[in-house]
Amino acid sequence: MTTHKIYIPRDSSALSLGAEEVFKAIKAEASNRKIEIEIIRNGSRGLFWLETMVEVETARGRVAYGPVNPSDVPSMFDEEFFLGKDHSLSLGITSEIAWLKNQERLTYARVGITDPVSLVDYEAHDGFKGLRKALKLTNQEIVDEVTDSGLRGRGGAAFPTGIKWQTVLNAPSEKKYIVCNADEGDSGTFSDRMIMENDPFVLIEGMIIAGLAVGADHGYIYLRSEYPHAQAILNEAISIAEKNGFLGQNILDSEFSFKLEVTRAAGAYICGEETSLLESLEGKRGLVRYKPPLPAIEGLYGKPTVVNNVISLATIPIILDKGSKFYADFGMGRSKGTLPIQLAGNLKQTGLIEKAFGITLRELLYDFGGGSATGKNIKAVQVGGPLGAFLPEHQFDTPLDYEKFSEINAVVGHGGIVAFDDSIDMSKLARYSFEFCAIESCGKCTPCRIGSTRGMEVIDKIKDGIDQEKNVEVLKDLGETMVHGSLCAMGGMTPFPVISALNFFPKDFGLEKTET
Ligand SMILES: Cc1cc2nc3c(=O)[nH]c(=O)nc-3n(C[C@H](O)[C@H](O)[C@H](O)COP(=O)(O)O)c2cc1C
Ligand code: SF4
């Protein structure tokens, strides 16, 4: 009897949309009908509006169905979906779906395709090729490869990863650390989670290579406390890697040893800031440290430490495997390679897209996102998390590129895009930015700790029509003070969303002008 291979995702987004119930319904129906099936729990492909997306392996390639609910399962069996036959929920050959076909998946090459904890699957899809190559190179050659790829940190600040690694490599110390920042606290972001749940070995491989490059033998993944599935999958993958000689003593019979641990984060936004993260990892309260010294010189327990975001580290294996030039050929200007973009908020189609830098917001919002979910006009988008500027419609043609965004006082950040339709009141969002800063501030410096609360009051006064002209000036002055006087980007960036909302949507603040 032929066994039919069926793929049902098990990542958090699919599970939250009922993937477990669909799995149980398909298993039960197959058993009742005596149809031989093998179910593989893959990761989500990132087309969230189609979850639960079920796939079937056929001679033509994998065929997708979605969104599948348990009640659809009997009719799918009636129509013999397990042979890839037509059904009202058929989406055709998965790789031909426009949302997937129009992407450049490098870091996410395996996401949704493989079983996340199958080492056999991982290696069959180019896994550990980067590490095997790195083991034949010197530390400096590995760092050079990363520098030449042009990779910049994907956690927000876009600092060149190669330069950071070079600093740690050059720092004289017996003990060094690799710390993966998996705190992923930005609004509308989930790309780190998707890598950790759907392709954990790629992060593990990236961290081993980082350790090899700079001479560190110990790594920590500082994981957002709200990610229990990611924690379970990472721990499972780490244990499999250890048992198979990829972690622990003498990796792949080399001289190199590397230990890796997952630590649950403290549940505070500021603990994603790298120095506050290190404090938290050391068991202290998450307060921001003064820089210098940089963590690359004095990081975890005072030792030279690479602190990198999940995506930065998960991109290392493909750079080592395919070479720096291959990676640097994607993108535009100084924004090299690809960025995982997360579409969220008021959009018809939300999910994950990996694209080379250079794609415009308009293409993302309309070609991929399908426009607003409500059918109304999209009024603004916030890019780069809660501290990112609000961009109005006339800026939607800005290409995603660190420098082009900087020219319009915006940030790309972690690639999270949250869309709002024209029913939104931008003054409420601006006020919320201050409130968020007041709640999440670590409290170490005055502009952020006090300024955020004063900011809320000033917005209230403007909205109440009290001395509007004077209070707009006060708000702008306060913004300047926070930008220039804050110790870290929490206070330093909070004025970005506020001032952009005020500049582009003055009417929402009760101001007469259409634009300042
Ligand atoms: C308030 C605040 C929160 C941050 N949260 C995160 C986070 O959740 N994840 C992350 O990777 N970087 C975060 N960062 C950026 C880190 O401080 C740091 O730049 C990053 O981890 C470096 O890694 P990369 O060079 O690979 O981007 C945050 C920064 C600030 C100021
Ligand atoms: S800006 Fe805010 S979060 Fe950053 S150090 Fe100052 S008080 Fe702490």
Task: Give an overview of the whole structure.
By secondary structure, the protein is of the alpha/beta class. 40% of the residues lie in helices and 15% in strands. It contains 22 helices and 16 strands. It has helices at residues 12-16, 19-32, 73-78, 98-101, 119-124, 129-134, 139-149, 161-170, 191-198, 200-214, 228-243, 274-281, 310-322, 324-328, 361-368, 402-407, 426-440, 446-449, 451-463, 468-485, 489-493, 495-504; strands at 4-7, 37-40, 54-58, 61-65, 90-93, 177-182, 218-223, 259-264, 305-309, 331-332, 335-336, 338-345, 351-356, 378-383, 390-392, 416-421. A five-stranded mixed β-sheet has the order 2-1-3-4-5, with helices on one face. A five-stranded mixed β-sheet has the order 13-12-16-14-15. Strands 8-7-6-9 form a four-stranded parallel β-sheet, with helices on both faces. Iron/sulfur cluster binds at residues 270, 288, 441-445, 448-449, 486-488, 490-491. Flavin mononucleotide (FMN) binds at residues 153-157, 159, 181, 183-185, 269-270, 272-274, 307-309, 312, 488-490.
